Amino acid sequence: MVDDNQETLAGLNDFLSNKKYEVTTAPDGLESLEIFEANQDGFDLVITDVVMPNIGGIGVITIIKQKVLTCR
To answer: Does CATH place domain 6-71 in 3.40.50.2300?
Structure first.
C-alpha cells in the first residue's frame, strides 16, 4: 500500500492487518518501487494513492506492470 498521507496509510494498514492480510506499506512512489524490486515473491495487490510527490500512483502502477510483463 502506497500513500504519502501517514494517517491514511496507518488506518488502512490497521484495517487490512486486522482482517489478517499481510500488508507492506510505503510513504511514497519511489520507496514503493524499491520495496517491489527487493521482494522476490512479488505482491498480489497494489493499493496506491494517485497524487504523490516524486512518482505518483499512475507512474508506480505503470512501472510495476512493465516489470511484471517483462518477467513472464
So the answer is: yes
